[in-house]
Predict the 3D structure of the following.
Amino acid sequence: MKHGKWHKRQVDQSLPAWKVEFLRYKELKPIVSAVSGRPPSPAEFVALLDAEIEKINAFFIEQEEFFIIRHKELQVAIRDALARKAAVPEAAHEAEIAAIRREIVNFHGEMVLLLNYSSVNYIGLAKILKKYDKRTGAVLRLAVIETVLAQPFFTAEAVTLMVRECEAMMEAVFPTAPGEGQAAARRDREALAAAEQRIFRNTVAALLAMEDVRSGSSTRGRHSLPPLTLPDSEWLRSF
């Protein structure tokens, strides 16, 4: 599948309010690939990308801050629900825990979408830079990607940690004995597993894009990134 179609599919599968926050790959591609007319100068093109990166970072940080608050609220909700377990009827406790569990699953899903947002934008930047360098003979890709690797949207450390902690939180609210809640709990586990698979596939795509960027030049300079040697690139490409 061509990257443009893949990028559009990823954007379409995201939350409706997020769509305008992605890299504008569709708009940037014709600027770079125009058969007639002059493509933007390196300075002009970097300015276009800087504006996109600033937009992506601003959105990512805003969502990250919201998730941090929500994460703490869910931790408090679980603690309080477990603390009053003995003081409320069993049916009421199970209903409360089931509601919290659904909130955690939804929260986990939104964080997965944000990590996917990070991967999709990184891959898009790497692809459009590759097209620009090929079209113009410039050598922007390594220099720009070097700065991207330090951006909040790429490192995503807090969100990645919260995804793992969210999965640990689920253990506290899944029923441990057979009962009415088991079917719903099983569906929630399946939702988590599907989300994890999506993270894995898009992380693989980001790793392969990074390997391509780092192996893109036979010369080494101050903007060169060290080669990235993945354990088995052909195996990864099979996903």
In short: Residues 44 and 96 are 55 Å apart (CA to CA). The radius of gyration is 22 Å. The first helix runs from residue 3 to 12. Residues 216-239 have pLDDT under 50 and may be disordered.
